[in-house]
Amino acid sequence: MRALLALALVLAGCQQAEPVPRTLGHPTVVSLNPCADAILAEVAAPGQLLAISHYSHDSLGSSMPLEQARAYPATGGTVEEVLALDPDLVVTGSFLAPATRNAFERLGIEVVTLGVTQDVESSAEQVRELSAAVDRAEQGEMLAARIEQAWSASAFTGTPVSTLFWQADGIVPGQDGLITGLLEHTGFVSQSAAQGIEQGAYLPLERVLADPPELVIAAANQRMLSHPALREQSDIAYATFDPSLLFCGGPSIPRALERLVEVRASL
After folding, report:
1. E strands along 138-180, which residues?
2. For position 126, what pLDDT does the model report?
3. pTM to 2 decimals?
4. pLDDT at 91 over 50
5. 2 pLDDT higher than 60
6. Contacts of residue 9, Cβ cutoff 8 Å, sequence gap at least 6
7. CA 87 vs CA 25, 29, 38, 41, 150: distances in Å
8. What is the pLDDT, as a whole number, of residue 14?
9. Distance of CA 89 to CAs 26, 38, 179, Å?
10. Architecture of 2-150 per CATH?
């Protein structure tokens, strides 16, 4: 029945990449989760990853290089699009509508849910679990080991620098965010976390200037985050950070740590 339905549907939702020949011996996968996209692109066998989420084809939402993402078709996540690709399993997040999840399960498509990780240890474990689910445990272990090695190599033991990590639209990370842990590990103290400001809270420029940190790391190309009133302060160092490294853990972690080490070395 599933095969007959798949033949009746059109791949209108798949974008910017031609389907590749399927792999043999591994379950085929469609990912609806941008964080899973990045992991699966690293660990999947050729032809195993049939499509990724549309977020990963957008420079503002992707957690991997666009040229890597656009090697795969993307879907909007509808049941019709996924069914037309006829995967063995779908990887999604907790946001998936119950009706959509039930539809996949009724059609015999296994659903794997990828949660949000808040630290490096749980992110590496998530890589291992997802890789095992798609029968690529060895490749997952290699990626997890790369994450753990980057973590070990980037540890900083000197005096930490008071740092405002400023994201798009002036929001800041809280105490429990992944980026806060990466900052603390590489020699920074998150000013917002130290002040008890909640994850995703808005911090206006006026408040920053009234209580300036030693360093501002701007994770978006917006005027407020690089305002002349801020840049003219000689006692505030300034650095930038690729916002695509904020969305997910997984393979983003080594790249994020590398950038933070570069910033710390420049001070």
Report:
1. 161-167, 171-172
2. 97
3. 0.86
4. yes
5. no
6. 80, 81, 83, 84
7. 13, 5, 18, 16, 33
8. 43
9. 11, 17, 30
10. 3-Layer(aba) Sandwich (3.40)
